[in-house]
Design goal:
3 strands, elongated, 2 domains, Ribonuclease iii, N-terminal Endonuclease Domain, Chain A, three-stranded antiparallel beta sheet, mainly alpha, about 250 residues, Double Stranded RNA Binding Domain
């Protein structure tokens, strides 16, 4: 196990109250095996750190994307604060190697377990906040947020329009887009298809192409552009009437 002072050097933060850092790095399994250990485990700091991370994520996204509607902001915040993301942040710091942990937990792979790592990262965030204040915690956490948001935006850009529209429609409007071929023209060797996409009972886009698949992608892209222009991503599901067969 690495020394807490090594972690201080790694993150560029020297704790005034060293006991806060030690508590952040103490897994409950260690307390179970060492009941006379003078510090508590990291669960209370984890509770605090969870709240701090949630706030800083919301604050960062609010200022980083001043024109983005509430729904997409919520989705991005969920990406930042989910356990898998926090575990990756902890892995970047090799946080598992600094944890005080019971032998059984360590032998079963606890130092690499995502839930343990995510909890430890939250606990570290809580400890930094208590010892150094919000500004230092913000400076510590912001590089992690910037990298994750950049990755998320790149992943989003790589998705095809139908995938992006489906995620948006299901998360913000609680409907699945439906595609309907409305016409086809031209000779058999050069058919041109027209496809409409509806969300609820409202047509959001139409596209054309030499196959129904291409036309559907074009329709989805047109729908995404319309939603962005109208701010429809902020619409509630109640504002979109369901199609007849959904009751």
């Amino acid at each position: 196990m690495n020394e807490p002072s090594d972690l201080e050097q790694r993150i560029g933060i020297v704790f005034v109250d060293k006991s806060l850092l030690q508590r952040a790095l103490t897994h409950r399994s260690y307390i179970n095996e060492h009941p006379d250990f003078p510090f508590e485990d990291n669960e209370r700091l984890e509770f605090l750190g969870d709240a701090v991370i949630d706030f800083l994520s919301g604050e960062y996204l609010y200022h980083r994307f001043p024109e983005l509607p509430e729904g997409p902001l919520t989705n991005l915040r969920s990406t930042l604060v989910r356990r898998e993301t926090l575990a990756c942040f902890a892995q970047d710091l090799e946080l598992g190697q600094y944890l005080l942990m019971g032998y059984g937990e360590a032998d079963s792979g606890g130092r690499e377990r995502p839930t343990v790592l995510a909890d430890a990262f939250e606990a570290l965030a809580g400890a930094v906040y208590l010892d150094q204040g919000l500004e230092v915690q913000r400076s510590f956490f912001q590089p992690f947020m910037e990298k994750k948001v950049a990755d998320a935006l790149r992943d989003e850009a790589d998705k095809d329009p139908k995938s992006r529209l489906q995620e948006l429609a299901q998360s913000q409007m609680r409907h699945t887009p439906r595609y309907l071929a409305v016409s086809e023209s031209g000779p058999d060797h050069a058919k041109e298809f027209a496809v409409q996409v509806t969300i609820g009972d409202k047509v959001y886009g139409e596209g054309s192409g030499h196959s129904k698949q291409v036309a559907a992608q074009a329709a989805a892209q047109a729908a995404l552009e319309r939603i962005e222009a109208e701010g429809a991503g902020e619409m509630n599901a109640d504002e979109i009437a369901p199609p007849p067969n959904e009751g």
